[in-house]
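Lecture notes, unit on protein representations.

Consider one protein chain, 158 amino acids long.
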Amino acid sequence: MPNGLLVHSHRDHFSIDDLARQWVGGIALAAAIGASYFLAAIFSVRLILEPEGVAVFWPAAGLSSGLLIVLGPRARWPVLAGVLGATVATHLIIREPLWAGIALGLCNGAEALITAGLIQYYFGPGFRLVDCATFLASSRRQLPGLVCLGSAELLPTG
């Protein structure tokens, strides 16, 4: 009986170590994603049109979505934390209010989560970008919508 307790206690010790390792790995992943997203966002800020104050293209969004697609659903929280932190830092650097950085950070993180979630929903958890047929099939379905959205962006508003 004491031997059974020792084995049970030993097993709990390993699960605590594994949990701590997962947390440290998640924090390191969030920091790496945040740093990458921050660098891409700083680059993207240079693409902002002066009169409108809107970025023409935001490469950081593609980075976060792509990383989440590649890393899978287990990386949801680290990606969200990294994107949120980097967005807040970027908005503080360009002298925008803190609340704007937090709101846009949540929106940017949600965008990556929704994109990865839709790809997983439609193509399954085994989706890989190297599968050319799957990639071309998804591109063919999305191309008309992207053309319409791009055309709408070019229309004069005033």
